[in-house]
Amino acid sequence: MKKDISCGYCMEGDLLAGFGIKICDLESSTLVLFKEQSHKGRVIVAYKDHVGDMTELSDSQRNLFFDDVNRVAKALHSAFKPDKINYGAYGDTGRHMHFHLVPKYKEDFEWTKVFEMNPDQVYLSDEQYNEIIELIKEKL
């Protein structure tokens, strides 16, 4: 497995804790709860190896990753009943392939806009994070 010691997705621990909480490992990825929860249920699906782009994956690796993304999206729909899920794939600076899955609700402040990377508005207690994590795990 390729790892980068400066990458939160690779190293987890304090690096990951700066923005997320690991939920679990999936077939080809790691599922992370994004700490900023302006959009309830927002998560990140990060590929298990440190690759910068899906073009670095074989067809079977890419398909397994997108199976994970799909599985998580179905769990989010079941758990939170969003009106839509937005998908964001960035990595300009981190260079670790990952997708943000952002449940959107018609009453959201960003309903008609692209979601902000970090609106820095809603942070929860440990108990509230754990409730969301357990609900997601239950629906996976």
* Number of contiguous helices: 4
Determine Rg (CA atoms, Å).
14 Å
| Spatial order of the strands forming the largest sheet | 1-2-3-5-4
CATH fold-type name: HIT family, subunit A
- The CATH architecture designation is 2-Layer Sandwich
Average pLDDT reading: 94
Please outline the major beta sheet.
5 strands, antiparallel
What separation lies between the terminal Cα atoms?
Answer: 25 Å
Shape: globular
Number of domains: 1
CATH homologous superfamily classification: HIT-like
Q: Uncertain runs with pLDDT below 50, 5 residues or more?
A: none
Strand content: 15-25%
Given this structure, which CATH class is correct?
Alpha Beta
Helix coverage percent of residues? 25-40%
Oligomeric composition of the shown chains: single chain
Q: Say how many strands there are.
A: 5
Which sequence of SSEs, written as H and E, runs from N to C?
Answer: HHEEEHEEH
Helix and strand content put the structural class at alpha+beta
